[in-house]
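Input:
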Amino acid sequence: MLGFGIIKGLAETWRNFIGSYYDPARLTTVQYPEQKLPPNENARTIPFLVFDGEDPMAGLRCTACSICAQECPAHCIEIVKDTTKKPDYLGKMQFYPKVFNIDMGVCMACGICAEVCPFDSIKMDRVFELSSHDRGMVLQKSDLAKPNDYFREIHPTEAAAVDAARAEEQRKAEAKKAANPVLAKS
Amino acid sequence: MMAVSDLQTSRAGDSAGHDLLEVSMGPHHPSTHGVFRMNVVLDGETVVKLSPVFGYLHRNHEKIAEKNSYLASIPYTDRLDYICSMTNNWAYVLSVEKLTGLAVPERAEYIRVIVGELTRLFNHACLAGFLLQDMGALGTPLMYAFREREKILDLFESLSGARMMCNYMRFGGCRCDLPDGWLEQAAKTVANFDSFLDHFEALLTGNEIIRARSDGVGVLPAALAINAGVTGPGLRASGVNYDIRKVDKYGIYSRFDFRVPLGERGDVFDRYMVRILEMRQSLKILEAAMRDIPAGAIIDPKAKLRNLRPKAGEAYGRIEGPKGELGFYLISDGSATPYRFRIRPPSLINLTVLEDMCLGHTIADVVIILGSIDIVLGEVDR
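Output:
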Protein backbone atom coordinates (compact mmCIF):
# COMPACT_ATOMS: atom_id res chain seq x y z
CA MET A 1 0.00 0.00 0.00
CA LEU A 2 1.40 3.35 -0.97
CA GLY A 3 2.32 5.42 2.05
CA PHE A 4 2.57 2.51 4.47
CA GLY A 5 6.39 2.69 4.47
CA ILE A 6 6.29 6.34 5.42
CA ILE A 7 3.91 5.66 8.32
CA LYS A 8 6.14 2.83 9.50
CA GLY A 9 9.12 5.15 9.37
CA LEU A 10 7.28 7.86 11.30
CA ALA A 11 6.42 5.33 13.98
CA GLU A 12 10.15 4.76 14.27
CA THR A 13 10.95 8.43 14.79
CA TRP A 14 8.15 8.69 17.38
CA ARG A 15 9.53 5.67 19.20
CA ASN A 16 12.90 7.37 19.40
CA PHE A 17 11.42 10.71 20.40
CA ILE A 18 9.25 9.33 23.19
CA GLY A 19 12.00 6.96 24.24
CA SER A 20 14.32 9.91 24.83
CA TYR A 21 12.08 11.00 27.72
CA TYR A 22 12.22 7.87 29.83
CA ASP A 23 15.08 5.69 28.54
CA PRO A 24 18.48 6.96 29.71
CA ALA A 25 20.19 4.94 26.96
CA ARG A 26 18.50 7.19 24.42
CA LEU A 27 19.87 10.36 25.97
CA THR A 28 23.23 10.25 24.28
CA THR A 29 24.27 13.88 24.69
CA VAL A 30 25.46 15.84 27.72
CA GLN A 31 25.21 19.57 28.31
CA TYR A 32 28.83 20.54 27.76
CA PRO A 33 30.47 22.61 29.36
CA GLU A 34 28.20 22.37 32.42
CA GLN A 35 28.31 18.59 32.27
CA LYS A 36 31.33 16.61 31.25
CA LEU A 37 31.71 12.95 30.53
CA PRO A 38 34.20 11.09 32.73
CA PRO A 39 37.53 11.01 30.89
CA ASN A 40 38.75 7.79 29.38
CA GLU A 41 41.89 6.32 30.88
CA ASN A 42 43.60 5.67 27.56
CA ALA A 43 42.62 8.99 26.02
CA ARG A 44 45.49 10.99 24.61
CA THR A 45 45.70 14.57 23.50
CA ILE A 46 49.02 16.42 23.69
CA PRO A 47 52.40 15.33 25.05
CA PHE A 48 53.90 16.43 28.35
CA LEU A 49 57.19 15.85 30.15
CA VAL A 50 57.28 13.87 33.36
CA PHE A 51 59.48 15.00 36.25
CA ASP A 52 60.28 13.31 39.54
CA GLY A 53 60.59 15.11 42.84
CA GLU A 54 59.68 18.69 43.67
CA ASP A 55 61.60 20.89 41.25
CA PRO A 56 60.30 20.55 37.67
CA MET A 57 63.55 21.60 36.02
CA ALA A 58 65.83 19.49 38.22
CA GLY A 59 63.68 16.38 38.11
CA LEU A 60 63.00 16.12 34.37
CA ARG A 61 63.48 12.59 33.14
CA CYS A 62 64.34 13.80 29.65
CA THR A 63 67.94 13.20 28.60
CA ALA A 64 67.75 15.18 25.37
CA CYS A 65 68.41 12.07 23.28
CA SER A 66 66.19 13.53 20.51
CA ILE A 67 64.61 10.21 19.54
CA CYS A 68 61.14 11.73 19.84
CA ALA A 69 62.17 14.68 17.69
CA GLN A 70 63.47 12.33 14.98
CA GLU A 71 60.45 10.07 15.01
CA CYS A 72 57.80 12.79 15.26
CA PRO A 73 55.75 12.57 12.05
CA ALA A 74 55.10 16.30 12.01
CA HIS A 75 58.58 17.31 13.26
CA CYS A 76 57.12 19.60 15.89
CA ILE A 77 59.64 18.91 18.69
CA GLU A 78 62.74 21.07 19.05
CA ILE A 79 65.45 19.95 21.46
CA VAL A 80 68.75 21.63 22.30
CA LYS A 81 71.10 19.64 24.50
CA ASP A 82 72.76 21.35 27.43
CA THR A 83 76.54 21.18 27.59
CA THR A 84 76.74 19.80 31.10
CA LYS A 85 75.52 16.49 32.50
CA LYS A 86 73.70 15.57 35.65
CA PRO A 87 73.08 12.20 37.30
CA ASP A 88 69.80 10.45 36.51
CA TYR A 89 67.80 8.16 38.79
CA LEU A 90 70.33 5.34 38.34
CA GLY A 91 73.25 7.60 39.15
CA LYS A 92 74.45 7.63 35.52
CA MET A 93 75.55 10.95 34.11
CA GLN A 94 73.12 12.10 31.41
CA PHE A 95 72.58 15.19 29.34
CA TYR A 96 69.45 17.17 29.88
CA PRO A 97 67.60 19.54 27.56
CA LYS A 98 68.43 23.21 27.55
CA VAL A 99 65.51 23.86 25.19
CA PHE A 100 62.55 21.56 24.75
CA ASN A 101 59.79 23.09 22.68
CA ILE A 102 56.72 21.46 21.20
CA ASP A 103 54.74 23.40 18.65
CA MET A 104 51.20 22.45 19.56
CA GLY A 105 49.90 24.09 16.43
CA VAL A 106 51.67 21.37 14.46
CA CYS A 107 51.41 18.43 16.88
CA MET A 108 48.83 15.91 15.73
CA ALA A 109 48.57 14.04 19.03
CA CYS A 110 49.56 10.71 17.52
CA GLY A 111 51.48 9.55 20.60
CA ILE A 112 54.53 8.25 18.74
CA CYS A 113 56.88 10.39 20.87
CA ALA A 114 55.56 8.74 24.03
CA GLU A 115 55.83 5.34 22.41
CA VAL A 116 59.47 5.61 21.34
CA CYS A 117 60.81 7.41 24.42
CA PRO A 118 63.26 4.99 26.13
CA PHE A 119 63.31 6.99 29.38
CA ASP A 120 59.53 7.16 30.01
CA SER A 121 59.95 10.88 29.98
CA ILE A 122 57.38 12.05 27.44
CA LYS A 123 53.80 10.92 27.95
CA MET A 124 50.42 11.83 26.55
CA ASP A 125 48.19 14.23 28.43
CA ARG A 126 44.42 14.19 28.65
CA VAL A 127 43.61 17.91 28.68
CA PHE A 128 41.46 19.05 25.81
CA GLU A 129 40.33 22.61 26.49
CA LEU A 130 43.33 24.14 24.78
CA SER A 131 41.96 27.11 22.87
CA SER A 132 43.73 30.37 23.59
CA HIS A 133 43.46 34.02 22.65
CA ASP A 134 47.03 34.36 21.46
CA ARG A 135 49.48 32.31 19.49
CA GLY A 136 51.02 30.79 22.56
CA MET A 137 51.02 27.37 21.02
CA VAL A 138 54.75 26.73 21.26
CA LEU A 139 55.04 25.16 24.68
CA GLN A 140 58.38 25.49 26.45
CA LYS A 141 60.06 23.06 28.78
CA SER A 142 58.52 24.78 31.79
CA ASP A 143 54.98 24.56 30.35
CA LEU A 144 55.39 20.91 29.45
CA ALA A 145 56.78 19.66 32.76
CA LYS A 146 54.24 17.88 34.92
CA PRO A 147 54.84 15.79 38.04
CA ASN A 148 54.80 12.00 38.09
CA ASP A 149 51.82 12.17 40.45
CA TYR A 150 49.81 13.76 37.68
CA PHE A 151 50.82 10.95 35.33
CA ARG A 152 49.75 8.41 37.97
CA GLU A 153 46.44 10.17 38.27
CA ILE A 154 45.55 10.25 34.56
CA HIS A 155 46.97 6.91 33.40
CA PRO A 156 47.05 4.74 36.55
CA THR A 157 47.69 1.40 34.82
CA GLU A 158 50.51 2.62 32.62
CA ALA A 159 52.07 4.70 35.41
CA ALA A 160 52.10 1.73 37.77
CA ALA A 161 53.93 -0.35 35.15
CA VAL A 162 56.44 2.43 34.51
CA ASP A 163 57.07 2.99 38.23
CA ALA A 164 57.58 -0.73 38.81
CA ALA A 165 60.05 -1.00 35.93
CA ARG A 166 62.01 2.01 37.11
CA ALA A 167 62.13 0.75 40.70
CA GLU A 168 63.43 -2.59 39.40
CA GLU A 169 66.15 -0.91 37.35
CA GLN A 170 67.13 1.21 40.33
CA ARG A 171 67.33 -1.85 42.55
CA LYS A 172 69.55 -3.65 40.01
CA ALA A 173 71.82 -0.63 39.65
CA GLU A 174 72.27 -0.40 43.39
CA ALA A 175 72.99 -4.11 43.66
CA LYS A 176 75.60 -3.74 40.93
CA LYS A 177 77.12 -0.75 42.71
CA ALA A 178 77.33 -2.70 45.93
CA ALA A 179 78.93 -5.68 44.19
CA ASN A 180 81.50 -3.60 42.31
CA PRO A 181 82.50 -0.45 44.21
CA VAL A 182 85.18 0.51 41.63
CA LEU A 183 82.60 0.83 38.86
CA ALA A 184 80.37 2.92 41.04
CA LYS A 185 83.07 5.54 41.52
CA SER A 186 83.76 6.07 37.82
CA MET B 1 36.05 20.22 -20.99
CA MET B 2 34.00 21.27 -23.96
CA ALA B 3 33.06 24.92 -23.74
CA VAL B 4 29.42 25.70 -23.16
CA SER B 5 29.24 27.63 -26.43
CA ASP B 6 30.45 24.56 -28.40
CA LEU B 7 27.86 22.38 -26.75
CA GLN B 8 25.24 24.94 -27.58
CA THR B 9 26.26 25.12 -31.23
CA SER B 10 26.12 21.35 -31.54
CA ARG B 11 22.65 21.32 -30.03
CA ALA B 12 21.41 24.40 -31.87
CA GLY B 13 19.07 22.43 -34.09
CA ASP B 14 17.15 20.46 -31.49
CA SER B 15 16.65 22.97 -28.71
CA ALA B 16 15.96 26.30 -30.22
CA GLY B 17 14.88 28.89 -27.76
CA HIS B 18 16.66 27.84 -24.61
CA ASP B 19 20.27 28.01 -23.56
CA LEU B 20 22.56 25.74 -21.61
CA LEU B 21 23.76 26.93 -18.25
CA GLU B 22 27.10 26.13 -16.73
CA VAL B 23 27.01 25.90 -12.95
CA SER B 24 29.97 25.54 -10.66
CA MET B 25 28.72 23.38 -7.83
CA GLY B 26 30.97 23.47 -4.81
CA PRO B 27 33.65 23.42 -3.47
CA HIS B 28 31.72 24.76 -0.49
CA HIS B 29 28.46 23.04 -1.14
CA PRO B 30 26.96 21.09 1.76
CA SER B 31 26.10 18.12 -0.43
CA THR B 32 29.60 17.53 -1.79
CA HIS B 33 30.83 15.93 1.45
CA GLY B 34 33.86 18.16 1.64
CA VAL B 35 35.70 20.47 -0.69
CA PHE B 36 34.74 18.96 -4.02
CA ARG B 37 33.60 20.89 -7.06
CA MET B 38 31.57 19.82 -10.04
CA ASN B 39 31.26 21.91 -13.17
CA VAL B 40 27.80 20.99 -14.34
CA VAL B 41 26.31 21.98 -17.69
CA LEU B 42 22.55 22.05 -17.41
CA ASP B 43 19.78 22.01 -19.94
CA GLY B 44 16.96 23.27 -17.81
CA GLU B 45 17.43 21.02 -14.80
CA THR B 46 18.94 18.09 -16.71
CA VAL B 47 22.66 17.42 -16.60
CA VAL B 48 24.27 17.48 -20.05
CA LYS B 49 27.85 17.44 -18.95
CA LEU B 50 29.64 17.13 -15.65
CA SER B 51 33.29 17.43 -14.86
CA PRO B 52 34.60 16.91 -11.36
CA VAL B 53 37.28 19.26 -10.06
CA PHE B 54 39.29 18.14 -7.09
CA GLY B 55 42.53 18.85 -5.33
CA TYR B 56 41.26 21.42 -2.84
CA LEU B 57 42.29 19.20 0.05
CA HIS B 58 45.63 18.12 -1.39
CA ARG B 59 48.11 17.73 1.45
CA ASN B 60 51.08 16.17 -0.29
CA HIS B 61 50.60 12.98 1.65
CA GLU B 62 52.66 10.69 -0.57
CA LYS B 63 55.66 13.01 -0.68
CA ILE B 64 55.58 13.58 3.08
CA ALA B 65 55.58 9.81 3.56
CA GLU B 66 58.65 9.50 1.33
CA LYS B 67 60.49 11.90 3.63
CA ASN B 68 59.37 10.30 6.87
CA SER B 69 60.24 6.98 8.44
CA TYR B 70 57.93 4.01 7.95
CA LEU B 71 56.57 4.38 11.47
CA ALA B 72 55.85 8.09 11.11
CA SER B 73 53.55 7.45 8.15
CA ILE B 74 51.02 5.53 10.23
CA PRO B 75 49.42 8.64 11.82
CA TYR B 76 49.25 10.21 8.38
CA THR B 77 47.25 7.26 7.05
CA ASP B 78 44.66 7.99 9.76
CA ARG B 79 44.00 11.23 8.00
CA LEU B 80 43.42 9.79 4.53
CA ASP B 81 39.87 8.61 4.93
CA TYR B 82 39.33 10.25 8.27
CA ILE B 83 36.18 8.25 8.99
CA CYS B 84 37.85 4.84 8.78
CA SER B 85 41.30 5.30 10.25
CA MET B 86 41.57 1.69 11.43
CA THR B 87 41.24 0.20 7.95
CA ASN B 88 43.72 2.74 6.57
CA ASN B 89 46.22 1.66 9.21
CA TRP B 90 45.57 -1.93 8.31
CA ALA B 91 46.20 -1.50 4.59
CA TYR B 92 49.46 0.33 5.25
CA VAL B 93 50.85 -2.07 7.84
CA LEU B 94 49.82 -4.96 5.59
CA SER B 95 51.97 -3.65 2.75
CA VAL B 96 54.91 -3.00 5.06
CA GLU B 97 54.52 -6.52 6.44
CA LYS B 98 54.64 -7.85 2.88
CA LEU B 99 57.76 -5.80 2.28
CA THR B 100 59.56 -6.95 5.40
CA GLY B 101 58.07 -10.42 5.81
CA LEU B 102 56.89 -9.86 9.36
CA ALA B 103 54.38 -12.36 10.72
CA VAL B 104 51.34 -11.21 12.66
CA PRO B 105 50.33 -13.11 15.83
CA GLU B 106 46.89 -14.71 15.95
CA ARG B 107 45.47 -12.38 18.54
CA ALA B 108 46.54 -9.30 16.62
CA GLU B 109 44.89 -10.68 13.48
CA TYR B 110 41.65 -11.13 15.36
CA ILE B 111 41.85 -7.64 16.84
CA ARG B 112 42.42 -6.27 13.36
CA VAL B 113 39.36 -8.05 12.01
CA ILE B 114 37.27 -6.80 14.92
CA VAL B 115 38.27 -3.15 14.60
CA GLY B 116 38.13 -3.36 10.79
CA GLU B 117 34.60 -4.70 10.77
CA LEU B 118 33.50 -2.21 13.43
CA THR B 119 34.82 0.49 11.13
CA ARG B 120 32.82 -0.95 8.25
CA LEU B 121 29.70 -0.93 10.41
CA PHE B 122 29.78 2.72 11.29
CA ASN B 123 31.05 3.83 7.90
CA HIS B 124 28.11 2.22 6.14
CA ALA B 125 25.62 3.42 8.77
CA CYS B 126 26.88 6.99 8.43
CA LEU B 127 26.91 6.75 4.65
CA ALA B 128 23.26 5.75 4.71
CA GLY B 129 22.60 8.71 6.99
CA PHE B 130 24.46 11.13 4.74
CA LEU B 131 22.72 9.76 1.68
CA LEU B 132 19.35 10.34 3.30
CA GLN B 133 20.42 13.82 4.25
CA ASP B 134 21.23 14.45 0.60
CA MET B 135 17.73 13.27 -0.27
CA GLY B 136 16.27 15.81 2.11
CA ALA B 137 15.75 13.78 5.28
CA LEU B 138 17.59 16.41 7.27
CA GLY B 139 19.25 15.05 10.31
CA THR B 140 17.05 12.27 11.61
CA PRO B 141 18.59 9.15 9.98
CA LEU B 142 22.05 10.67 10.23
CA MET B 143 21.67 11.34 13.94
CA TYR B 144 20.49 7.78 14.55
CA ALA B 145 23.54 6.52 12.67
CA PHE B 146 25.82 8.88 14.58
CA ARG B 147 24.38 7.69 17.88
CA GLU B 148 25.51 4.15 17.05
CA ARG B 149 28.81 5.37 15.64
CA GLU B 150 29.54 7.15 18.90
CA LYS B 151 29.34 3.87 20.80
CA ILE B 152 31.92 2.32 18.49
CA LEU B 153 34.11 5.43 18.68
CA ASP B 154 34.03 5.14 22.48
CA LEU B 155 35.36 1.62 22.08
CA PHE B 156 38.11 2.91 19.80
CA GLU B 157 38.99 5.60 22.30
CA SER B 158 39.38 3.20 25.17
CA LEU B 159 41.45 0.93 22.92
CA SER B 160 43.72 3.33 21.08
CA GLY B 161 43.39 6.65 22.88
CA ALA B 162 41.67 8.58 20.12
CA ARG B 163 38.21 8.42 18.65
CA MET B 164 39.04 8.96 15.03
CA MET B 165 42.80 9.29 14.59
CA CYS B 166 43.49 5.91 16.12
CA ASN B 167 47.10 5.27 15.05
CA TYR B 168 46.61 1.79 16.43
CA MET B 169 48.24 -0.82 14.20
CA ARG B 170 51.94 -1.47 14.04
CA PHE B 171 54.12 -3.51 11.69
CA GLY B 172 53.74 -7.09 12.85
CA GLY B 173 50.79 -6.56 15.17
CA CYS B 174 48.98 -3.90 17.12
CA ARG B 175 50.18 -1.19 19.48
CA CYS B 176 48.52 -2.31 22.70
CA ASP B 177 46.36 -5.11 23.93
CA LEU B 178 42.62 -4.82 24.51
CA PRO B 179 41.85 -3.18 27.86
CA ASP B 180 39.93 -5.16 30.49
CA GLY B 181 36.26 -5.46 29.70
CA TRP B 182 36.68 -4.16 26.16
CA LEU B 183 35.47 -7.32 24.47
CA GLU B 184 32.35 -7.48 26.63
CA GLN B 185 31.57 -3.87 25.83
CA ALA B 186 32.16 -4.50 22.13
CA ALA B 187 29.98 -7.61 22.19
CA LYS B 188 27.19 -5.56 23.74
CA THR B 189 27.53 -2.87 21.08
CA VAL B 190 27.48 -5.45 18.31
CA ALA B 191 24.45 -7.19 19.78
CA ASN B 192 22.58 -3.89 19.92
CA PHE B 193 23.63 -2.97 16.41
CA ASP B 194 21.48 -5.70 14.93
CA SER B 195 18.31 -4.24 16.41
CA PHE B 196 19.46 -0.76 15.42
CA LEU B 197 19.70 -2.00 11.83
CA ASP B 198 16.17 -3.41 12.04
CA HIS B 199 14.84 -0.04 13.21
CA PHE B 200 16.98 1.82 10.69
CA GLU B 201 15.57 -0.30 7.90
CA ALA B 202 12.02 0.15 9.18
CA LEU B 203 12.64 3.86 8.93
CA LEU B 204 14.22 3.86 5.50
CA THR B 205 14.08 0.80 3.29
CA GLY B 206 10.34 0.66 2.72
CA ASN B 207 9.88 4.40 2.55
CA GLU B 208 8.10 5.29 -0.70
CA ILE B 209 9.82 8.65 -1.03
CA ILE B 210 13.23 7.04 -0.83
CA ARG B 211 12.24 4.43 -3.40
CA ALA B 212 10.93 7.12 -5.71
CA ARG B 213 14.11 9.12 -5.39
CA SER B 214 16.58 6.27 -5.73
CA ASP B 215 15.09 3.54 -7.95
CA GLY B 216 16.69 3.63 -11.37
CA VAL B 217 18.73 6.73 -10.56
CA GLY B 218 22.46 6.75 -11.31
CA VAL B 219 22.67 3.32 -12.88
CA LEU B 220 26.21 2.02 -13.15
CA PRO B 221 26.43 -0.86 -15.67
CA ALA B 222 28.62 -3.75 -14.58
CA ALA B 223 30.85 -3.50 -17.66
CA LEU B 224 31.56 0.17 -17.05
CA ALA B 225 32.18 -0.43 -13.35
CA ILE B 226 34.77 -3.09 -14.15
CA ASN B 227 36.46 -1.02 -16.84
CA ALA B 228 36.68 2.04 -14.66
CA GLY B 229 38.18 0.06 -11.78
CA VAL B 230 35.32 0.76 -9.40
CA THR B 231 35.58 -1.37 -6.26
CA GLY B 232 33.72 -1.87 -3.05
CA PRO B 233 29.96 -1.68 -2.48
CA GLY B 234 29.56 0.39 -5.67
CA LEU B 235 30.89 -2.46 -7.78
CA ARG B 236 28.93 -5.14 -5.93
CA ALA B 237 25.73 -3.14 -6.31
CA SER B 238 26.20 -3.54 -10.06
CA GLY B 239 26.21 -7.31 -9.59
CA VAL B 240 29.92 -8.06 -9.80
CA ASN B 241 31.01 -10.52 -7.17
CA TYR B 242 34.34 -9.06 -6.13
CA ASP B 243 35.24 -8.70 -2.50
CA ILE B 244 38.93 -8.66 -1.58
CA ARG B 245 38.12 -10.36 1.70
CA LYS B 246 37.04 -13.34 -0.41
CA VAL B 247 39.52 -12.91 -3.29
CA ASP B 248 42.74 -12.30 -1.35
CA LYS B 249 41.68 -13.77 1.99
CA TYR B 250 44.17 -11.40 3.64
CA GLY B 251 44.63 -11.71 7.37
CA ILE B 252 42.38 -14.46 8.65
CA TYR B 253 39.27 -13.80 6.57
CA SER B 254 39.31 -17.35 5.22
CA ARG B 255 38.15 -18.53 8.66
CA PHE B 256 34.92 -16.60 8.69
CA ASP B 257 31.69 -17.61 7.11
CA PHE B 258 30.06 -14.66 5.43
CA ARG B 259 28.33 -13.90 2.18
CA VAL B 260 28.89 -11.10 -0.30
CA PRO B 261 25.67 -9.20 -0.99
CA LEU B 262 25.18 -8.25 -4.63
CA GLY B 263 22.88 -5.77 -6.31
CA GLU B 264 21.03 -6.26 -9.57
CA ARG B 265 20.56 -2.93 -11.24
CA GLY B 266 23.41 -0.84 -9.88
CA ASP B 267 21.28 2.18 -9.03
CA VAL B 268 21.39 4.34 -5.92
CA PHE B 269 18.94 2.10 -4.06
CA ASP B 270 21.06 -0.99 -4.74
CA ARG B 271 24.14 0.77 -3.47
CA TYR B 272 22.27 1.67 -0.28
CA MET B 273 20.86 -1.83 0.13
CA VAL B 274 24.18 -3.58 -0.49
CA ARG B 275 25.66 -1.56 2.35
CA ILE B 276 22.85 -2.46 4.72
CA LEU B 277 23.27 -6.15 3.90
CA GLU B 278 27.04 -5.86 4.25
CA MET B 279 26.58 -4.53 7.75
CA ARG B 280 24.56 -7.62 8.62
CA GLN B 281 27.37 -9.83 7.32
CA SER B 282 29.92 -7.78 9.27
CA LEU B 283 27.92 -8.49 12.42
CA LYS B 284 28.28 -12.20 11.71
CA ILE B 285 32.04 -11.86 11.26
CA LEU B 286 32.29 -9.80 14.44
CA GLU B 287 30.38 -12.33 16.50
CA ALA B 288 32.60 -15.15 15.28
CA ALA B 289 35.80 -13.16 15.80
CA MET B 290 34.87 -12.13 19.33
CA ARG B 291 33.99 -15.69 20.19
CA ASP B 292 37.21 -17.22 18.81
CA ILE B 293 39.80 -14.61 19.76
CA PRO B 294 42.74 -16.38 21.38
CA ALA B 295 45.03 -15.09 24.12
CA GLY B 296 48.66 -14.44 23.36
CA ALA B 297 51.09 -11.88 22.03
CA ILE B 298 49.83 -8.94 20.04
CA ILE B 299 53.01 -8.09 18.17
CA ASP B 300 55.69 -10.08 16.38
CA PRO B 301 58.74 -10.19 18.71
CA LYS B 302 61.00 -9.57 15.70
CA ALA B 303 59.18 -6.36 14.87
CA LYS B 304 61.17 -3.20 15.41
CA LEU B 305 59.40 -0.01 16.23
CA ARG B 306 62.15 2.33 15.08
CA ASN B 307 64.83 2.18 12.40
CA LEU B 308 62.88 -0.07 10.12
CA ARG B 309 64.96 -0.59 6.99
CA PRO B 310 63.31 -3.11 4.69
CA LYS B 311 65.42 -4.79 2.03
CA ALA B 312 65.23 -3.20 -1.40
CA GLY B 313 62.08 -4.34 -3.12
CA GLU B 314 58.47 -3.52 -3.65
CA ALA B 315 55.16 -4.59 -2.18
CA TYR B 316 51.50 -3.88 -2.76
CA GLY B 317 49.18 -4.52 0.15
CA ARG B 318 45.46 -4.13 -0.30
CA ILE B 319 42.39 -4.63 1.81
CA GLU B 320 38.68 -4.38 1.30
CA GLY B 321 38.11 -1.04 2.95
CA PRO B 322 34.57 0.14 3.62
CA LYS B 323 34.78 2.24 0.47
CA GLY B 324 36.53 -0.23 -1.81
CA GLU B 325 39.99 -1.53 -2.54
CA LEU B 326 42.45 0.45 -0.47
CA GLY B 327 46.01 -0.34 -1.46
CA PHE B 328 49.46 0.91 -0.59
CA TYR B 329 52.28 0.41 -3.06
CA LEU B 330 55.70 0.76 -1.50
CA ILE B 331 59.13 0.65 -3.06
CA SER B 332 62.04 0.37 -0.69
CA ASP B 333 65.64 1.11 -1.62
CA GLY B 334 66.93 -0.24 1.66
CA SER B 335 66.96 3.09 3.46
CA ALA B 336 64.85 4.21 6.40
CA THR B 337 62.33 6.00 4.19
CA PRO B 338 60.31 4.52 1.35
CA TYR B 339 61.57 5.35 -2.12
CA ARG B 340 58.04 5.49 -3.45
CA PHE B 341 54.85 5.57 -1.47
CA ARG B 342 51.72 5.30 -3.57
CA ILE B 343 48.17 5.02 -2.35
CA ARG B 344 45.33 3.54 -4.35
CA PRO B 345 42.39 5.40 -2.91
CA PRO B 346 38.99 3.80 -3.52
CA SER B 347 37.14 7.11 -3.26
CA LEU B 348 39.06 8.75 -6.10
CA ILE B 349 38.72 5.85 -8.50
CA ASN B 350 35.04 5.31 -7.72
CA LEU B 351 34.52 9.00 -8.42
CA THR B 352 35.70 8.69 -12.02
CA VAL B 353 32.36 7.22 -13.12
CA LEU B 354 30.37 10.12 -11.67
CA GLU B 355 29.66 11.75 -15.03
CA ASP B 356 28.46 8.52 -16.63
CA MET B 357 26.02 7.98 -13.79
CA CYS B 358 24.73 11.55 -13.76
CA LEU B 359 24.06 12.30 -17.44
CA GLY B 360 20.40 12.76 -18.14
CA HIS B 361 19.44 13.11 -14.50
CA THR B 362 18.42 16.26 -12.71
CA ILE B 363 20.68 18.29 -10.48
CA ALA B 364 18.91 16.96 -7.39
CA ASP B 365 19.80 13.44 -8.50
CA VAL B 366 23.46 14.41 -8.95
CA VAL B 367 23.56 15.15 -5.24
CA ILE B 368 22.31 11.70 -4.22
CA ILE B 369 24.40 9.89 -6.85
CA LEU B 370 27.48 11.57 -5.41
CA GLY B 371 26.28 10.64 -1.94
CA SER B 372 25.85 7.01 -2.92
CA ILE B 373 29.43 6.69 -4.18
CA ASP B 374 30.68 7.32 -0.65
CA ILE B 375 33.65 9.62 -1.01
CA VAL B 376 35.81 11.20 1.63
CA LEU B 377 37.75 14.11 0.27
CA GLY B 378 40.71 13.51 2.52
CA GLU B 379 41.28 10.33 0.56
CA VAL B 380 40.37 11.69 -2.88
CA ASP B 381 42.88 14.53 -2.73
CA ARG B 382 45.43 13.14 -0.26
